[in-house]
């Protein structure tokens, strides 16, 4: 299966060029809008994001900050015409996995993408066990119990990740709405309860007896695996 790459750039011609270069080796999704990219990242399991910095609206650095704030472990490569050392250092310190300047050589771009993918996949090969028999591969967004995969929706996985990566920390329903659904979601906080119920059901049906998602009465939820 081809690795999936999200390309974010406000220049149509650049999107077309990048698509042409990458489509032979990757599954490609493109957008010219930072906010649309954030929405796509919440609802899809991309393997990597190729991100321009200078864009109208939500520019690349702000998009990366938002991704990292939401605990998204999506590998990100900045692709920018800004080539000063200070810009490259800032991009890497913000949490980018690599920084490539325009203009670029197509073969080098493809090679750098493969390098980041190998590095992040190697990092995730040791799937974290968060309860006896439960394993989560953050990069591939897969959850397993006793060797059997548990099929989760993107929202369910994002909920699980938010809680599991902060063990013992209690999250209010409003905090989970903001982290998982985003700032612009105006649904009822009971939406969280419905998805937590579905997530718990899938974990129990898979055979996990430990109540890893605990209710904090009158507040919200926390990860309580021992």
Description:
It is a single chain. The longest helix is centred in the middle third of the chain and has 19 residues, at 106-124. The protein starts with a strand and ends with a strand. It is elongated, with a radius of gyration of 19 Å. Helix 2 runs parallel beside helix 3 (60-69), helix 6 (154-164) crosses helix 7 and helix 6 crosses helix 8. The chain has two domains: 4-124, Response regulator (Rossmann fold), CATH 3.40.50; 128-223, Arc Repressor Mutant, subunit A, CATH 1.10.10.10. The protein has helices at 12-22, 34-43, 60-69, 85-93, 106-124, 154-164, 173-181, 190-205; strands at residues 4-8, 27-31, 48-51, 76-80, 98-101, 128-131, 134-137, 142-145, 148-150, 171-172, 213-216, 220-223. Helices cover 42% and strands 21% of the residues. The protein has eight helices and twelve strands. Strands 2-1-3-4-5 form a five-stranded parallel beta sheet, sandwiched between helices. The chain has a four-stranded antiparallel beta sheet with strand order 6-7-8-9, with no helix packed on it. With 226 residues, it is α/β, with parallel strands linked by helices.
Please tally the helical runs, counting DSSP H or I stretches of 4 or more residues.
8
Structural class: alpha/beta
Average pLDDT figure: 85
Tell me the CATH topology of the largest domain. Answer: Rossmann fold
Which architecture of the largest domain per CATH? 3-Layer(aba) Sandwich
Strand order of the largest sheet: 2-1-3-4-5
What is Rg?
19 Å
Shape: elongated
The end-to-end distance, rounded to whole angstroms, is: 35 Å
So what's the CATH class of the largest domain?
A: Alpha Beta
Low-confidence stretches: none
What is the N-to-C succession of helices and strands?
A: EHEHEHEHEHEEEEHEHHEE
Proportion in β-strands: 15-25%
What is the CATH homologous superfamily assignment of the largest domain? Response regulator
């Amino acid at each position: 299966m081809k690795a999936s790459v999200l390309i974010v750039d406000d220049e149509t011609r650049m999107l077309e060029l990048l698509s042409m270069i990458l489509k032979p080796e990757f599954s490609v999704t493109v957008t010219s809008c930072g906010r649309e990219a954030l929405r796509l990242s919440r609802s899809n399991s991309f393997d990597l994001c190729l991100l321009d910095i200078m864009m109208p609206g939500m520019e690349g650095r702000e998009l990366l900050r938002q991704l990292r704030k939401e605990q998204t472990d999506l590998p990100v490569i900045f692709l920018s015409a800004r080539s000063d050392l200070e810009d490259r250092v800032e991009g890497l310190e913000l949490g980018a996995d690599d920084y490539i300047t325009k203009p670029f050589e197509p073969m080098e771009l493809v090679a750098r993408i493969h390098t980041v993918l190998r590095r992040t996949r190697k990092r995730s090969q040791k799937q974290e066990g968060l309860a006896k028999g439960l394993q989560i591969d953050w990069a591939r967004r897969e959850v397993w119990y006793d060797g059997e995969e548990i099929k989760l929706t993107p929202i369910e996985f994002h909920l699980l990740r938010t809680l599991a990566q902060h063990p013992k920390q209690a999250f209010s329903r409003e905090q989970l709405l903001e982290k998982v659904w985003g700032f612009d979601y105006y649904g009822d906080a009971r939406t969280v309860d419905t998805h937590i119920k579905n997530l718990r059901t899938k974990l129990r049906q898979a055979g996990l007896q430990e109540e890893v998602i605990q209710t904090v009465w009158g507040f919200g939820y926390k990860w309580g695996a021992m």
